[in-house]
Structure formats: C-alpha cells, structure tokens
C-alpha cells in the first residue's frame, strides 16, 4: 500500500496574530493532515481533519514557512511545497481611564512591527455615533463624551502594508459629574449633618466629605443622601460630595460651609461673693454667638441668664445646692451639654441664738436648725479667752467660762462641701456674777449681825442668807457688807452670799457657820437660904451649856459658874443692897448677858434671944435687934399648933400667951422682909412647957439665954428640966 498524495497548499494567510490559516485541495484517502510552521527557531505542528486548517501558538508579525502532509491509514505523505505566510500584528494592550466625566484616555504600549493604530469608541448600548481615530502615538483621548456612560473602545495596529493586526476591545465608563444642589441640615443634639444632593448620571457611589482644619469626617452611600456623624462642636466644616463609579470619582462638588454648634463653655468658675450673690463665669468658645446659663436649686427653683458676655450673676440663698450648666448658642443651635456643676452655698447662719441657761461659768445656748448645716461650731470670745464647742445638734454648752464676763458668742454653721460660714453674726452674752467670798461675820452690842464679803462683780446686788432650824433670814446690799438683825438666840445658822446681776445669779459662796448667843432664861429667882447664903435659880436657856451668876455690892463680889439651873452664893452680908447678874454661855463660849437686877439681902437675924416665962401658959421672947432697921416676927412651933407674935414697931420683945402646957416648942425670931415674908433661917430655941407654974417666975421670972448650950441648964425647978438649946 502506498502513502497518500502530497497535498498542495492553495494559500496561507494570517488573520489573528498568533495563527496562520492554510487552505489546500483535499487528498483522496487522507483522513487527516499535519500542518507545520517554522520560523527558523521553532517548529509548531498542528493536526487538522480538513481544509482549511489553522496553526496556532505562533508569534505575531513573524514570517513562517508553512508545509502540510496528508495522513491516511496507509501512512503519511511527504511534506508539500512550502508556502510563506506572516502573522498579523498583535493587538495593542489597552489601558483605558476616564480622567474627566466627558473624556476617556486610551493608552497602549508599542506593538511590534506596527506603524500606526486605529482606535474607535462608541456607547456600549449601541446608541449614538462612533468615534474613530488613527494615530501613530501610543495614546489617544476621546473628549466630549457623556459623563457616567459606558463606552466600548476598539483598537488595532497596522503594519507598513496597511494590514491591520488583531484588534483589542474593552469597555470604559466615563467618571460621573460632581453632584449638584447639595443641601445640608444639622442635628445639633446628635452633632450629625444630613447631606442630600441631586443624583448624577453613572454614579455608583457617593462619598460625602466634611473637612475642617483639624478633622475629617465622611460617609458613603449609593443613595442621594448621607449622614455624617461624630462631628466636632465649634468647628467650621466644608461639605463636599464626590460621585464615583468604576471609572473613578468626580471632582469635588462646590463645597458647602457648615458651622456646627459651639462647644459647651469650659473653665466654668462659680463664686459666691458676697454671700447671696452667685457669680458664674466661663471661657469664650469658638462659633458661640451668645450664652445661656441655667441655675437650678435642689428644691426645684430654676432661673437662667442670657448674655453675649462670659459671665452671669444670680441671687442665691444659703444652704442650697445649685446645679449650673452653661450652653453656647449660634445659628446651628445649642451647644452640647457640658459638665453640670453643682455649687453648694455656705450653710445658713443661726439667727435665733437663745441662752437658756446662764451661770457663772457656763452658758447653754440653743438655736433652730438651719438649712445646709451639718455641724455647728460655737465660739465664745472674751479677750484672749476663747472657748469652743462643736456639735451636730442645735445646742451647745460652753463651760469653763469666766464669771461676770461679757463674751462674744458666735454660732458658725459648717458643711462638708463648703466648710464654715464665717459671716455669722455674734451675740454678746454676759456670764453670771462671780461668787462672793465671805471674809468676816461680826456682831455688835445689840446682837446685830454684820456680814462682810469680797467680790469682783460690776453692778451686782448681793443677798446674804442665814439659814437654820429656826428659819431663814436675809439681807441685801450693792456694796460689800450688809446687816442682819432679829436672828433668834441659841441657834446655829449657815451663812452664804450670792450675787445677782442682769445676767443672773452667782453660785453661793462657801458657807460660814454663825452661832447666835444662847438664849437667856425666861425667869430668875433669888432666894435667901441662910443669913449668908442665897440661892439664885432660873429656867433653862436654849443652847446655854453653863451659867455664871455674880452677886456684887460695894463691899465685895460673889460668883458662881455652874451647868445647873441654880446656884448658891455665900459670904453675903445681911442687910446690904446687891446687884445680881446672870450670863448664859454656849458650848463654844458665846456669852449672853441675861439678867441684871438689884437684890437687898434680908435683915440680920436678931442676937441675944432670951426666953422669959410668963406664968403657966405664956412666954416672953426677947432679942437684940440686928444691924439695920427691920420688923421681926416670933413663932412657936409645937405639935398643938403654931403660935405667932408680932411685936409692936420699935420693940425687941414679944409675949406669947395661952400656949398649951406639956408640949415642946421651937422658938424662932425672924426678920420680916418688906414683902412680908418671914425668914426661916434664923436660929431656933426649944422650950418645954411640961413644968408646973412656979409663982416665983411671976415676980422674978427666970431668963434663959440659950445662945450657947452651956447656958441651957435645968434650974432647981424640976419642971424646967427641959433642954433649952440653940439650933
């Protein structure tokens, strides 16, 4: 079997820069054909089944030697006669952009073996005209295009023979125009700008730019409006809108100026000077046209101040907390809320300070609670003497003060926030007077008590009080002594003195004891016991412990000191005028001169008493009168009676008759006092009447002198055997 026939190439040509198309006559029996292209460096083979056939993978603008072989079941033929063919120029590689909304710039690199280029452009939708330009350059700009429109660009190169090479096609959209009719609205509360515009042709996206000297904000959208947030207060922004598509962005639109609200004023200074006037000052802020300061108290009261300056003044009250905020305003609106400052005014000062207790060294003051006060400081000042007390209660007791001293007492109110309110007014309070010091208590001859004291008070009245079981006695004086009378005797008193001024009473002085003289007995009795002894008796006097009785005359003195209520005084002389005095003495030695009276001692007992018998039933009693004139009385005391005989004036004897016989009698001759009282202390004689009558006695009566026992002897008469004796 023989190989198939050798094909004959009719023609070989290139329409695409990387291939050559070969045409030939069909060889009977051939089932396929082998095309070969050689450029001297490389050999490229391609199997095809029929004519025409194309060899690909070639280099552009290159001359190739083309041969073909037929292939059948019996084998492969010899290569045909070669045919030369040259690949066309390569297509230019385009770089397309839209530098402006109405132009497209087409650029490419030089194409091998090309001497010129053809570039055409038309809208991709087929509408409108086609622009075609030839150039030897490697770039070309098409202008006067529609903005934002998609164009199809086609370009190819040609060689010296004018044969066009491969064409290159791409689409390019012109960039959009800048959006127009930009509208900006501002939300001052959110610091947000809402920007809107008229949509522009061919824009895919829009970018809104807000530029200031210190910041940049933007937003992007596919719609015709956009919000820019987080803008800065007090800033002037230039708002512009860019439209963009796949070709790029438009130029910035004409900028719109946006002035945001002013920032909240800073460096807010709050002062209360003077009290009751609140001054609020702040720093000036950019873009602020005017300011409004709001002041609200914690009880809901609110005021505001509208000013173009940076300061406002308000009336304030003590003890309130004020909440202060300052806003700046411009055409954009109100500034954001800045810091809210609270200012607590000084607590109110107590105004009703009342001293409820004032003593010599202590003052208790109370007042009504005041608004804003958390603590009270009470200060009392008198020269260099300062006394303080702190308390949360509206009361204070100032102690350790000086007596009779005027203090400037001030109650300051304090709060933790504001401290002390130093504008509180003082009140003058004088402490109670100083206690006087009793230095002496004396008594005069009239038992009047004189009390002397020492004190340093000014304009004080002093009251001295003597208090005891018998009652209370007082005297008053503005000096340093007073006199007190009428105190009962025999009493013990405690004497104190107090001072009184307009501020009040002082504390009592230290007490001094006062003992009055003992009470004198209410009665005194003088009784003569014997001729030389008298008995002085008296009642008991209050507080008297002992008594002194003195009996005194021109011839001498007799004294008795006893704790009893009577006293015997001896060695007196009868018939003498005496002075009797009685003194009561207390346990402490106080003496009361109680009694002063005259006393005349009784006449002396008669001397030489003799008895003479006068018959059986009578007796004569004879005596010798004593010194001084006196009346006498004779008494016979017996079991059968008492027989009395009073002699006639001037006689010194007395006869007692008709006395019963047979009895024993006691005979006494006594002087009779002026009061008629007979003295019973004179000597007594005993007489017995048992003897019978002796007639001798009638003419010659027997006389017994019984002044001594020796003389009282029985006579020869048995009947006179009785013993006559002196007692």
Question: What's this model, at a glance?
Answer:
This is Fibronectin type III domain-containing protein 7. This protein has 727 residues and is an all-beta fold.
How would you characterize this protein structure?
It is rod-shaped and about 250 Å long. The strands form 16 sheets. Strands 3, 4, 6, 7 and 8 form a 5-stranded antiparallel sheet that branches. Strands 18, 19, 21, 22 and 23 form a 5-stranded antiparallel sheet that branches. The chain is built from 1 helix and 62 strands. The relative contact order is 0.05. With 727 residues, the protein is an all-beta fold. 1% of the residues lie in helices and 52% in strands. The C terminus is likely disordered.
Q: What percent of residues adopt helix (DSSP H or I)?
A: under 10%
**Number of distinct helices:** 1
The whole-number mean of residue pLDDT values reads 88
Poorly predicted segments: 690-727
Compute the gyration radius: what is it?
A: 81 Å
Q: Biggest β-sheet: count, sense, barrel?
A: 5 strands, antiparallel
């Amino acid at each position: 079997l023989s190989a198939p026939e050798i094909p004959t190439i009719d023609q070989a040509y290139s329409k695409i820069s990387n291939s050559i198309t070969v045409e030939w006559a069909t060889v009977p029996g051939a089932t396929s054909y082998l095309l070969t292209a050689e450029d001297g460096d490389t050999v490229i083979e391609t199997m095809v089944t029929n004519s025409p056939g194309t060899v690909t993978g070639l280099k552009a603008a290159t001359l190739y030697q083309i041969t073909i072989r037929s292939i059948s079941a019996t084998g492969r033929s010899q290569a045909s006669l070669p045919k030369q063919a040259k690949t066309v120029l390569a297509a230019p590689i385009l770089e397309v952009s839209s530098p402006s909304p109405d132009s497209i710039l087409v650029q490419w690199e030089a194409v091998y073996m090309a001497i010129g280029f053809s570039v055409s452009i038309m809208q991709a939708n087929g509408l409108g005209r086609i622009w075609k330009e030839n150039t030897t350059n490697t770039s070309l700009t098409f202008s006067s295009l529609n903005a934002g429109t998609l164009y199809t660009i086609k370009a190819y190169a040609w060689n010296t023979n004018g044969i066009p090479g491969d064409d290159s096609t791409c689409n390019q959209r012109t960039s959009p125009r800048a959006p127009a009719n930009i509208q900006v609205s501002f939300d001052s509360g959110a610091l947000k700008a809402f920007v809107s515009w008229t949509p522009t042709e061919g824009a895919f996206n829009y970018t809104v730019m807000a530029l200031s000297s210190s910041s940049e904000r933007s937003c992007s959208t596919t719609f015709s409006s956009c919000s820019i947030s987080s803008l800065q207060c007090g800033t002037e922004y230039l708002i512009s809108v860019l439209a963009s598509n796949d070709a790029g962005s438009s130029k910035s639109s004409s900028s719109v100026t946006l002035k945001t609200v002013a920032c909240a004023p800073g460096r807010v200074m709050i002062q209360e000077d003077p009290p009751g006037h609140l001054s609020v000052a702040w720093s000036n802020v950019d873009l602020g046209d005017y300011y409004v300061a709001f002041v609200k108290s914690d009880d809901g009261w609110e005021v505001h101040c509208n000013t173009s300056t940076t300061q406002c003044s308000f009336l304030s009250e003590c003890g309130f907390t004020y909440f202060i905020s300052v806003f700046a305003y411009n055409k954009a609106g109100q500034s954001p809320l800045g810091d809210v400052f609270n200012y607590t005014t000084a607590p109110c000062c107590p105004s009703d300070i009342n001293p409820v207790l004032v003593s010599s060294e202590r003052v208790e003051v109370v007042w009504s609670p005041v608004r804003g006060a958390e603590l009270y400081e009470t200060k009392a000042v008198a020269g260099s003497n300062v006394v303080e007390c702190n308390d949360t209660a509206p009361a204070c007791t100032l102690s350790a003060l000086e007596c009779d001293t005027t203090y400037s007492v001030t109650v300051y109110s304090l709060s933790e926030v504001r401290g002390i309110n130093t504008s509180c007014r003082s009140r003058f309070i004088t402490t109670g007077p100083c206690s006087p010091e009793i230095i002496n208590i004396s008594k005069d001859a009239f038992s009047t008590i004189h009390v002397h004291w020492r004190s340093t008070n000014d304009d004080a009245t002093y009251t001295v009080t003597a208090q005891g079981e018998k009652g209370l006695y007082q005297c008053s004086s503005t000096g340093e002594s007073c006199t007190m009378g009428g105190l009962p005797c025999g009493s013990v008193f405690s004497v104190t003195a107090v001072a009184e001024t307009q501020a009040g009473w002082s504390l009592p002085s230290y007490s001094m004891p006062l003992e009055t003289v003992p009470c004198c007995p209410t009665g005194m009795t003088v009784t003569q016991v014997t001729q030389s002894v008298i008995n002085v008796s008296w009642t008991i006097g209050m507080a008297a412990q002992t008594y002194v009785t003195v009996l005194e005359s021109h011839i001498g003195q007799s004294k008795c000191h006893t704790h009893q209520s009577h006293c015997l005084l001896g060695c007196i002389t009868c018939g003498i005028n005496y002075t009797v005095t009685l003194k009561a003495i207390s346990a402490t030695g106080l003496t009361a001169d109680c009694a002063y009276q005259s006393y005349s001692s009784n006449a002396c007992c008669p001397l030489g008493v003799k008895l003479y018998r006068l018959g059986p039933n009578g007796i004569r009693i004879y005596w010798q009168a004593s010194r001084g004139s006196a009346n006498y009385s004779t008494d016979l005391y017996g079991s059968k009676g008492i027989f009395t005989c009073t002699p006639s004036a001037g006689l010194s004897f007395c006869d007692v008759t008709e006395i019963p016989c047979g009895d024993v009698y006691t005979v006494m001759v006594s002087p009779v006092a002026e009061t008629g009282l007979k003295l019973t202390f004179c000597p007594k004689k005993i007489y017995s009447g048992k003897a019978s009558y002796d007639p001798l006695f009638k003419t010659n009566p027997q006389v017994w002198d019984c002044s001594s026992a020796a003389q009282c002897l029985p006579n020869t008469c048995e009947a006179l055997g009785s013993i006559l004796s002196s007692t």
